[in-house]
Each structure stands twice: as structure tokens, then as C-alpha cells.
Amino acid sequence: MISVAEALTLVARHSQPRPAVEMPVADALGLVLAEDVASDVDSPPHDKSIVDGYAVVAADMAGGEARLAIVEEVVAGNVPSRRVTNGTATRIMTGAPLPEGADAVVMIERSEVKASPRSHLGDALLRADGLKPGQNILRRGASFRRGEVVVRAGATLRAIEIGLLCEVGRVAVRVVPRPTVAILSTGNELVPPCEVPGPGKIRNSNGPMLAAAVARAGGRPVDLGVGRDDRDELRRSIATGLAADVLVLSGGVSAGVLDLVPGVLAGLEVEQVFHKVRLKPGKPLWFGVLVSGGASKLVFGLPGNPVSSFVSFELFVRPALAQLAGRGFNGLATCHAGLTQPFIHRGERPTYHPAVLRQSAAGATVEPLAWQGSADLRGLAAANALVQFPAGDRAFVAGEAVEVLVMDD
Prior knowledge:
The chain is α+β, with helices and mostly antiparallel strands. The chain is about 20% helix and about 35% strand.
């Protein structure tokens, strides 16, 4: 057996970002940009008002109040046709271009319109103490200039970046695609969740759980269903799964008579990197690589017990998917928290124990949950974290700081 740290090093060594592809910006949310993107325009493209109000010559407001003839009205999408001179003003809406001659905007809340013989639009009675040139105006190019890089390669595209890319005219970009992850649950005992299990049977919970975990980790899950404990059937199913970037199997990797997965993988030229890791739950974990067409396909054989399968995924598959997606080899966030109660740990392997992490002004605390072992998925469901207890028999006291993996965002 190897340690968790050694296993993670080996997984990281074989995980490389997928080649970049071009795709529509609308489909790129959450992906990592693979190119610098520069603007083809200035933003804003003109001096513009940032409020609804009146474009004026600031000097006219030196006394704090002025009555100015309204020469025209400009809304966003239109352009001014009249110059503003001393004694005049243009009614202007937010985002509209600033007319020539104007150097400030008085907010509409500080105005009244009066009838006037000199303008069919009337006069604007404005009150604005201390109005300065440039007030309530955003100058052309203040946000960015044409040719300036606005989103750099390596950025994860959020809704904000999607909007910015569209602002600079990009309808398609090069990104690192989501890795495809084929999921195969193995075992003669498995039946679909919609069936009532007969004698000796259980519902397939691992497949849907792992598919959800893949989607949450940013991958594209491909459900291959259940592979029976038959070499030929497993070979066909696994061969199909090897078309994906990653194949995740659950079950069939321990030492039982029907644990056929490692042998079938070897027959399909998948090279074993390691088998068995010093941890609890998850000891039987298998990891290998298939080199195909110059690219490496990653294969994870997770233990069949659901908690073992989940913990193995979070520890090893999640960071691999992040690396493949260009986000770096990043797994669950970690922190330190004080135990809420005494805890006795026994065993020669490090244990990842379900727990509840709480944050408060006084600091983080963590409560280990009652847990019946690697088959107790309900016990895990109450958790939002995993406490890392090191190998060896030891009594932990209440308040003692322990390392915690944070399962919830």
C-alpha cells in the first residue's frame, strides 16, 4: 500500500489539461480560457453620462443655480446633434453620448422644467452646488481601450467574463473543455434504483452518486449503467468507457473471487499505476492509465461500498478532473477546526470521518458524527466535512485542532 500523499502525487503526474477547443461563448460558463482576449473597441466608445440629467457647461453652475435653455434631448442609442454652449443644456439619459461643449451633467433630481419662449423644450432650472468639470461623466476608453487584453488565458469564465467577452465582440473562444467521465458500477447484486431489490440484491446508488459528483466537479458524466461480474461483459463495458477522458468504476477492485476489474483492465492495455492506498475508507482504490493517440486516459477503480467510493472520488478523482479542466490539481478545501467533543481513533490507517463543520465568530468547530462504516451512506449524508484522523490509536480531547476537508461549497 502507498500513502494518500504518494497516491495524489502519482495521479497528478498523469493528469494533464485537455487540449483547448473553440466553442460559443454562451456554452463556456465555468470553463478555463485558453487564449488572451483583446477588445476591438474602446469602452465606453464615447464620453457618456452616468446619470439621467442635463449636460451643461460646468462654469454656468458656478453660483450653484442656473436657468438654461434646453436645446435637445438625447437618449441612449441616439447621438447629439446640437452643441452645448453657455446658457444652454441638453437633456440626457444614462449611457447617452455627451454633446460637444458640455463638460458635466446635473442629475435630473436637481432640476425643474419651466416653460420658455426661447425653447420648445423649455428651460431647465438646475441646482447643483460645487459642480465640477467631468462630474457624472465616464470618459471614452475609461474602462478599456481597443487592443487591450480584457480577459487573460487561465481565467475561469464566470457570468461576468461571459458578459465582458460579448462586450468586446467575441462570440466564440478557445477554452479547456470539460472532461468526459464514463461511470460504470459493477456487481451482480446491483439493480436499478426504480426496482425493489430481491434476495441478495441492492439498488445501484454509486452510479447516480458518482455522476452527480462528476457534474459538481465540472465534468461531463456518461452513465454506462451496471457491468455484471462476467469478464466478457466487463470487457465490452470498460472498452466503451475508455472512449472518455476518464473512466470511473465502482466495485470489483478488492480481493474477492469476482473482483475482476484489474485483470480486465490489464487485458485492455490499461497500465496499473497503483493499487491500494493506506486510508479508511477507500483502501482498495485502483488507478491506471491508458495511452491512446498521444493522450492519456485516466482510470479509477473505486471500492464498491458507497462511502468508500465517495471519499475516494473526492480525494483523488476530483483534483484530477480539475487538472484536466485547466484549473490546477485542486481538491476539496481544507481548514483546521476544534473538536466539539472527545474522540477516540483506532486503526493503522488514516481515517476520513464524516463530520459537521460549523463556523462562528469564535472560530471553526467540527463534530464527528456517529458513523457505521463504509456502507453507511445515510451517516455520510448528515455531514458537510471529513475530519482527517492520522493513523494510530489515540484519544483526542474536546477543543483539540484537527484538519478538516470541507465537502460543501
